[in-house]
Design a protein that fits this description.
The protein has about 250 residues and is mainly α. Helix content is about 80%, strand content about 0%. A two-stranded antiparallel ribbon has the order 1-2.
């Protein structure tokens, strides 16, 4: 039996009880007039009618209170219903894909110690007294680092772009779910999941900026190291040339 059917049955039973009470209390207690053998007391009858009316009003008030309580319980039940839609799993998968692209960074990865070691060996402390061949090999490695950095940045950007469609679909589903939410809990859960979509988009944006910044930093470091090496190579070139002496043969 549902709560609404229970209330209807309670209202019908209460009304029947009120009618029965009216019929019982309307029996006269004292006789003042007689009509065909029936004794009738007007004042007592009026008092009985008033008492029955008050009793019926109290019953109606109790019915209204029960109806209000039932409505409140129904609303509370709706507010406790969970949202049947969740997009957290696909969002987590998209973030994991972006993390995999970052972890797959070539050559100099996103690791503080590895970056420090690589920069000490290849950029900051270039052995300018090394052979010409060793200096060319070092420049080649730095150039390859820069190219790999830009390639990694393009991959992360492509992954972020691929996630846009998934985010759009999730937003549409969540907006539709929030508009048809039956209670406060469903609306709150839809709002929380929309925030999760924004967090996933911010994660993609952060990864894209980090990958692009890494590529630009490697390129700038490569150009700075190339300048230092170029000066040393120019000095060697000029130093290897025979000294010019005026009037010499």
């Amino acid at each position: 039996m549902t709560l609404r059917k229970f209330l209807h049955g309670l209202a019908a039973s209460s009304a029947l009880a009120a009618v029965s009470a009216t019929a019982v209390v309307s029996v006269p207690a004292q006789a003042q007039f007689g009509f065909g053998g029936i004794v009738y007391d007007p004042s007592n009858y009026a008092q009985n009618v008033l008492t029955a009316a008050r009793t019926l009003e109290q019953i109606n008030n109790q019915i209204r209170m029960l109806q209000n309580q039932a409505t409140s319980l129904i609303n509370e039940a709706k507010n406790l219903q969970s949202l049947p839609l969740t997009v957290l799993q696909p969002l987590q998968e998209q973030i994991q894909q972006t993390q995999q692209l970052l972890r797959a960074a070539q050559r100099i990865a996103y690791d503080v110690r590895e970056i420090e070691t690589a920069f000490d060996q290849q950029y900051k402390n270039i052995p300018l007294n090394a052979s010409q061949r060793a200096m060319v090999d070092g420049a080649e490695k730095r150039w390859q680092n820069s190219v790999a950095g830009f390639e990694d940045a393009l991959k992360v950007q492509a992954g972020a772009v691929a996630n846009i469609e998934g985010s759009r679909s999730a937003v549409n589903d969540l907006v539709s779910a929030s508009q048809s939410a039956t209670g406060a809990l469903q609306a709150a859960q839809a709002g929380n999941q929309l925030l999760a979509v924004q967090a996933q988009q911010l994660a993609d944006l952060t990864a894209t900026l980090a990958a692009m910044g890494r590529a630009q930093a490697l390129d700038a470091a490569e150009r700075a190291a190339a300048k230092a090496q170029a000066r040393e190579q120019l000095r060697r070139f000029l130093g290897d040339q025979p000294t010019y002496t005026p009037g010499g043969n």
